[in-house]
Write a structure and sequence with these properties.
Blueprint: E1 12-17, H1 31-40, E2 45-48, E3 66-77, E4 83-89, H2 103-112, E5 116-119, H3 129-132, E6 140-145, H4 146-152, H5 158-165, E7 172-176, E8 190-195, H6 200-209, E9 212-215, E10 220-225, E11 229-237, E12 239-244, E13 249-253, E14 260-266, E15 273-279, E16 285-287, E17 291-292
Parallel strand pairs: 1-2, 2-3, 6-7
Antiparallel strand pairs: 1-8, 3-4, 4-5, 8-9, 9-16, 10-11, 11-14, 12-13, 12-15, 15-16, 15-17
The protein binds zinc ion (2 copies).
One zinc ion binds next to loops.
Length: about 290
């Protein structure tokens, strides 16, 4: 079993938006205004990821809120000719020169610069499994990109995620806004990170270890994982789905009963992976990272 359970770690949960644009690229708000909006909304972490440049933002941090410098780089073409977008977080300004014609080279450059990289919005980018297989230095994908969802309905990439998980990849999944406008595309996708403290170092360490989950609304309160079973506790839900490899897994629906606040799944040991989706009464979801068989 491979799963470093964030709920078993010491520390606190921090709410983060890890993909955001400002007036330093094609966003409508300045970095300072962006930080004010997210801090007032109760977020603890904001990564500013302008296109093809690293926007300095550390000075926008406060005692209860940190800004981390990032970037979004166009990086080559998929099998259908669409453009990969790669996000890098906690990177120096020099990484802006790392735009390449292949996502692997960009991911490598981000890693060499000390950052963490992932593939943005697979559905929006028209990526398929073949485009995503075998990437190294890749934390994973964005399972919810709220801007892509409300702009053209292609922000949720859970099928893309399953397509690569069932083929053996160990990608994790992030929730982000990718907001460009003034409020319209904010607060619909976020990542909850369990870290020892609210510092850049602790947040980045937690991301690297997979101590997080993605959400468009619902919250996961606890996960218990053993070789025999997976139990989840969560905010009120209409359904709790245990998503697994092949035709395994199970969905538990509230039907005519009060909302669910937890569920338990008995593992059979050959699911390849099991990940949890919490679906609330309005259809919004939270996505745990996968528990891999091996
Ligand atoms: Zn993008
Ligand atoms: Zn973006």
């Amino acid at each position: 079993m491979i799963f470093d359970n964030p709920f078993a770690q010491a520390g606190n949960w921090y709410k983060a938006n890890l993909h955001a644009h400002t007036t330093e690229s094609d966003g409508k708000l300045t970095p300072a205004d962006k930080a004010i909006h997210y801090r007032r909304q109760g977020y603890h972490v904001l990564a500013i990821t302008d296109h093809n440049r690293v926007t300095p933002c550390r000075e926008l941090s406060a005692s209860d809120f940190i800004c981390i410098e990032g970037i979004e780089l166009g990086s080559g073409r998929s099998g259908t000719g669409s453009t990969f977008h790669v996000v890098g977080m906690d990177v120096p300004t020099s990484v802006a020169d790392a735009a390449t014609d292949h996502p692997q080279a960009t991911l490598d450059a981000i890693a060499e610069a000390g950052g963490v990289g992932w593939i943005a919005h697979p559905y929006w980018s028209c990526l398929v499994a073949q485009d995503l297989l075998g990437l190294k230095n890749c934390l994973g994908i964005e399972v919810i990109n709220y801007g892509c969802e409300i702009e053209i309905g292609k922000g949720i990439s859970s099928i893309h995620w399953d397509d690569v998980l069932v083929r053996g990849e160990k990608y994790l999944a992030l929730g982000v806004d990718d907001g460009h406008r003034c409020g319209w595309d904010f607060y619909g996708g976020f990542t909850m990170i369990k870290a020892e403290e609210l510092s850049r170092e602790a947040i980045m360490a937690a991301l690297r270890k997979g101590h997080f989950y993605a959400s468009a609304g619902p919250l996961i309160h606890d996960l218990q994982v053993t070789d025999e079973a997976i139990s989840v506790e969560c905010s009120p839900a209409a359904a709790i789905n245990f998503m697994a490899g092949d035709q395994r897994g199970w969905c538990i629906q509230k039907e005519n009963r009060p909302p669910l606040t937890g569920a338990r799944y008995l593992r059979n040991g050959n699911e390849k992976y099991v990940r949890i989706e919490v679906v609330d009464e309005t259809g919004l979801r939270a996505w745990s990272n996968p528990v891999f068989d091996a």
